[in-house]
Give the backbone structure.
Amino acid sequence: MNIHALRLFTKVAELKSVSKAAEVLRISQPAVTIQIRNLEKEVGLTLTESKGRGITLTSNGDFLYKQAQRLFDLERDIENKVAQLKNSGADDLNIAASYVPANFLLPKWLCHYKETYPSVTVNVKTENTQQVIEQLLHYKADLAFVIEENRHHPDLHYQFLMNLEYCFIVPSHHQLAGQTISFEKLMNEPFILREKGSSTKDLLLALCNLHKTPPPKIGMQLYGLNESIRTVAAGFGAMLAPVVAIEDYLYRKQVAQVYVEDIEIKRPTYVCTRKNEIDVLPHVSHFIEVVKDQ
């Protein structure tokens, strides 16, 4: 495949315009158009369609664009790692993690890792599960930690670490505090829901579907686990939360658990890497070894 043409196509797809891509790349618009047409002939697929003054991608074009993004992200990743090795002789370790692993599991692992590998610079980015997977796929992270990915991405390797228990909580003064009730009754309460892409939100909606119960009324939607728990502790709403994140709140009686009939939630935690890559990234395999030993 002509990589130069693929690079031009990626810029056109990103800007949704041949003329804008030509301007940014400082080449003529006809030259860009010819390269796109040649790429379409080479792959035997229609990649773009006209839309007003711009273009839109066909389904095949969208697929190629996403794969090309990953290819050029890998190229930048290689360049960055080579530069790091030239400058310091040591590589950075870039970790992406969803909120629970980042806040309640990683700190201990990171301390042990730095004791053994003090020269490695570790960068941790915390996002929701969907964003974490995208970080790994696009070479923005070397490994990722997530909870219960229902649809495992075919290009990633998922290694099970442990199960984490989840429960429902309400403010400590709430009338349902400490009670055992039906799932349907609990769903009548205003809930604090997480943002799109949160695996906890997906789990709650899956439970509603399983029990043939309408989703709860959204009292608030917050971006982040800690913000959500603190809001319940302040006196509003119900939520589904990992036990490891609320233990201190339960001890201080700022929140209370609601027990739901016939429901026990344990969610698997995974460390994820890109397939067939762990053996060529020693700092990644070293970190995973530290995690396994804890």
In short: The first strand starts at residue 48 and ends at 51. The mean pLDDT is 88. DSSP finds eleven helices and twelve strands in the chain. Residues 59-88 form the longest helix (30 residues).
